[in-house]
Structures
1.
Amino acid sequence: MSGAKVKEIEELIKIVSKLPGLGPKSAQRIVLKLINNREEIIKPLTKTLVEVYKNVVRCNICGNLKSSSSNCVCSNKKYDQICVVENLADMFVIQNTGIYNGSYHILGGTLPAFEGQKSGNGLLIDSLINRIEKNEIKEVILATSASIEGETTAHYISDSLKNKKVKITRLAKGVPVGGSIEHLDDGTLFSAFKNRSSMAKD
């Protein structure tokens, strides 16, 4: 006779298995670890998750995460460079290399390959333009992926900034075609940043 399944545990396994890189078996091991460490892990984890759910929001200016009770880092420091990325994971990867210490702008995705010239498609592009004007930015580094959508997004932003007095650069082509920033190794990313090229304005 097989052991009876516990509804709550099965539901938790389903939720955990939705996390990146985790399947049902890995999720099951994690859940069992949690169950066996109720006081040390589950209790503080539950409290922290509730706090994150209630208080952590996306900044509508730069796209970064911030506490709802405080100002975002983009309003607290002076900067003359902005690195534009598609998502938070890309920003974290670049930060971990230590090659760039300036400000970031997280778009929240990319533009569709065949619709990019029509509108910003809900991405934080207008706010990027506003930041450039307000902070007298000297360089905008476009660190979008080498996919068709990433290239479309980079060219749309470049076109949107063609009348602004700002240098626009793109990561070097060491980034493989179709590759995302999130999955690059440090060496490739370092080289791509160091050898970034200017996007000429027509």
2.
Amino acid sequence: MITLKQFINLIDYRITEGCDYTWDCYGPNAYNLSSWNGDHDGHSLNVVFDTEFQTVYEVQVHDYKQNRAYRLIHPDCVEDYQREARERDVNPNEAWDDVDYVDLDVDEDFIEKAQAIIAGEDYDTRVSVPVNFTDEELLTYMKMAHDRDMTFNEFVEQALRAAIDDFKQQGILIQSPPFPADSFTQEQAREAVKKAKKKKRG
């Protein structure tokens, strides 16, 4: 999870608003800081952190020009946040009218998107997924990608897409999530690549 220092550096120390975080999911010391550039077609960023321990619980970046919103929630807090949203009968994904948050898993992904949004530059709207392979698995998959004349990233992305299609056919996914799917665990990603390997053999 990114640190408060990283967030402050990201917004270049421009804080436009602050208030207590009124939900209970992040504990009694949760505080929200906002940075808005003052343009309704511009951008804003929020951070929710612990005033005692300085732990960052959630960061958000809003791209009003492109109608996109991204957030990163501390992995230890996701379930508590979703539970409280259900208790309050609130859509946990809604950023504003007709715009849902895209949940990110990788700190660098959030930072890169936020930097581009702040600078008004184009950025990759795909979502990075952390995937860990053993050295043996990595070598095997890199060879498979080479055999298919693909980059390793293209190969993994194709495998994840195949797994998403599988889940949709099984009724596990009703709609395709932002790709690569932020809901994928590392184990699911590994299984997706294994499925691609089996299909090749078949």
3.
Amino acid sequence: MLSIFFGGIERAPAVAAARKKRAAKADAEVRVRRVKASDMANVIALDAHITKLAKPDYWTDVFKRYGRQRLHERFFLVAQDCADRKNSRLLGFIIGEVRAWEFGSTPCGWVFALSVDPDARQHGSGRALLDAISAEFKKAGVSKMRTMVERNTILQMLFFRSEGMMAGPYIQLEKDID
């Protein structure tokens, strides 16, 4: 366990307790569940808001592949606001799958999409989504989770690092195809 010292006093238990309190509050306000067809307009709108690029055909295909097929190893989850029962808005989504034997890698969970409404950030939605997909991966029999982020996306890097993710054993390589 990482201990943080302030003035010679170990604060790790206090930090852990505060984190558990925040997580419990987020759990009470955020419900994570599998995506439904009726969620897709909100998923598309959230992605367009974040990326500034509307991709409805892409998201229709992702829903078909990850929201309807091979559900024991593919996971498309959404976070819903439970604080307001009349208007339970979509707070974010996460998508991943169990992949095996790519370049010799043993089976592991891969997260390839995570998005949270900017107005819902810093309130536990991202953590709730990552915890939920982690639980799904564990049920599927894997004990490792991976993702990939661009080097210059500091917000994503900070989030995943704060959740315990770190550099793995692989290096991504690419080449422009002329």
